[in-house]
Structures are given as structure tokens and as C-alpha cells.
Write a structure and sequence with these properties.
Rossmann fold, 11 helices, 13 strands, 17% strand
Length: 336
């Protein structure tokens, strides 16, 4: 019988790509979604759905217990569920850390710990380090997150790593882009509107990974039965701050663009104002204090050599190829 896999956050940008790759590999796939989540990218008939609301731990326990009685435990779990932006700062800790902890504790209590528990973390857990010499961030470095999001992911990582014998794999991707993503879509729309805004005047090295390469790395870890390891993921290169936007501009037909370098103190003021307004309106904003700290970070280089050497990971997409495919998808779907 094919191995079973549960993917939480399956309706999201990254989660939906993981589901599709798991189906392609003929896993028995359960998509963990919240009540009311869009299934726009989860339309394959052989997807099983589990409506998991991690804010209701008793319901989650009952659902997992019922699943175990009917199908047994999952062979693999990929935990993508989480928040990257929110109107309530407490929600970062509540969702990314406490709900992850509760989920793992429930699996342990039900004797449903899988052969591998894969946790999607972020390069943001390490924060702004090596900003003088621009050396790649390595696993031997000490994490120093400067965002609430990064802190919440780090707390989850430390809890997972502290469980004796727990079969985890942690992935820490840098900026993930690709079709279905709405964060980088905002940049493309800005450029289409003839603006290109960069943060600060000092050198900034950015890194990226195409969503399909992230998914590729995840399944390499499964294929090789890796446990109790953490990996940084990028396409292996670092880019000047405007490189990505210039590629987007090229794919949009080279529209005329006003290049604006925004001083960090101005960007901070704008971000705080946007956060205040969105809080009053009860909406989320692309600009907020967390996003400001991300934009002002100068060094996003990371060392992917452990993933290359231990997993056999080689990125399949250059940034040029990934941006080309992404912009084409946005246009085809009417997003641009």
C-alpha cells in the first residue's frame, strides 16, 4: 500500500504545490485545511480532506483519533500551516508556536508520531546577522530574529528539536516565490504601475527559491529517510536588491519605471502608519513593523551546502526561469 501523507496548510501557496507533488508520487494524500478554506488549487479527485482547526485542540484530537481508527497513523506529516502576516501580533506566537506544539503533543499522545515530521520554518529565524561581511548564514550561527514572525518560528523549532528522538526535518527557505503567491505579486503590480521602490542605500544581498524547488527539497528529505536535521534552502545565489524587480520588468515588456530608493526612516514611518490604519480597519497590510524589519535586513545569504551534500539537492530553476514562469502564470490567471 502506498505511504500516507498529511499536509497541513494545504490550501496555501506552498501547501498546494506540496499536495500536487505528493499526488504525482502516488502517496495517499490528506490535505489539512480549515473550514471555509479555498480549494481552488486542490481539485484532484483523489485528495482526502481533513478539516483541522488548530485553535480547537479537542476537535483536532478527535479527528486524528478517528483517522487512526479508520486508516492508521500517517507515514509522513508536512506541517505548512501558519501565519506570515496578521492584524494581531499575538497570533504569530499562538499559531506558529503554540498550535504547532499542541499538534505535536496530540500526535504523541495518540501514538501517531509519523516516520518523519517535516516543519516549514523560515530563514527569518536567524535575523540580521553577518551584515558587515555578508557571509552566508550557517546552521552554526546563533539565531537572532528581529521579527515577531521569526521569533515564533524559532520557538517552534526549539520545541521540536528538544523532543528526544522526535523524527523531525526542518526547512528554512529564504524568499519563496512562484505561481499562486500573492506577496511577490504586489511587487509585480507596483512595477506594472511604473514604480520600483527599494529599501535604504546600503548594499543588500537578496536570496530566493522557486516554490517547485522548495517542494523538490522536501521530498528529497523524505526519499532519503532523513530525520533530526535542519536545512537552509535557496537557489544557491545572492542578488543585488533590484535584480528581481528588473527580471519582472523584463517579463512585463520593459515598462518605464521610476526607481525610488526610500530611506529607512521614511520606510519605517510609512510601515507603522500602514500598520495603524490596517489595525483600525481590521485588515492585514503588506507594510507593517515586521515587514519593515525584513526589508531593512541587508544580508539574506544562506549556506545550502548541507542540503546539496546530504539530500542531493540541486535547484532546477534559475531566478530568470522562475520569474518568467511566475509572471506568465499571473497573466494567464488575470492577476496582472
Amino acid at each position: 500500500m502506498a505511504a500516507s501523507i498529511l499536509i497541513t496548510g494545504a490550501s496555501g501557496f506552498i501547501g498546494s504545490f506540496i499536495v500536487q507533488e505528493a499526488l504525482r508520487r502516488e502517496y495517499r494524500v490528506w490535505a489539512g485545511v480549515r473550514q471555509g478554506s479555498s480549494k481552488r488549487f486542490l481539485r484532484e479527485r483523489n485528495i482526502h480532506f481533513l478539516k483541522l482547526d488548530f485553535s480547537r485542540p479537542d476537535e483536532v484530537r478527535a479527528q486524528l483519533s478517528a483517522h487512526k481508527s479508520a486508516y492508521g497513523a500517517f507515514d509522513h506529516i508536512i506541517h505548512c500551516a501558519g501565519v506570515t502576516k496578521t492584524t494581531d501580533k499575538e497570533e504569530f506566537d499562538r499559531v506558529n508556536y503554540r498550535q504547532t506544539k499542541c499538534f505535536i503533543d496530540t500526535l504523541t499522545g495518540l501514538d501517531m508520531v509519523p516516520a518523519q515530521f517535516i516543519f516549514l520554518s523560515s530563514l527569518s529565524v536567524f535575523g540580521p546577522i553577518h551584515e558587515k561581511d555578508y557571509a552566508p548564514i550557517r546552521e552554526s550561527d546563533r539565531p537572532a530574529p528581529n521579527t515577531i514572525y521569526g521569533m515564533s518560528k524559532l520557538k517552534a523549532e526549539r520545541y521540536i528539536e528538544g523532543i528526544p528522538g522526535f523524527p523531525y526535518i526542518i526547512y528554512r527557505p529564504t524568499g519563496v516565490y512562484g505561481p499562486r503567491d500573492r506577496d511577490y505579486l504586489l511587487l509585480a503590480r507596483t512595477i506594472k504601475s511604473h514604480l520600483d521602490i527599494s529599501a535604504g542605500f546600503r548594499r543588500q544581498d537578496l536570496t530566493f527559491i522557486y516554490v517547485k524547488d522548495l517542494v523538490k527539497a522536501i521530498f528529497l528529505g523524505i526519499d532519503r529517510n532523513v530525520t533530526q536535521r535542519s536545512y537552509f534552502l535557496s537557489d544557491g545565489n545572492a542578488y543585488p536588491s533590484r535584480f528581481y524587480s528588473e527580471l519582472v520588468r523584463k517579463e512585463l515588456g520593459n515598462p518605464f519605471v521610476f526607481h525610488i530608493k526610500c530611506p529607512l526612516f521614511v520606510l519605517k514611518a510609512i510601515s507603522l502608519l500602514a500598520q495603524f490604519v490596517s489595525g483600525c480597519l481590521g485588515t492585514t497590510s503588506a507594510l507593517n513593523s515586521d515587514k519593515y524589519n525584513i526589508m531593512k535586513q541587508r544580508n539574506w545569504r544562506c549556506d545550502i551546502s548541507p542540503a546539496v551534500e546530504e539530500l542531493g539537492f540541486t535547484p532546477g530553476y534559475s531566478l530568470e526561469e522562475g520569474v518568467k514562469e511566475t509572471i506568465a502564470w499571473y497573466r494567464n490567471e488575470g492577476w496582472l
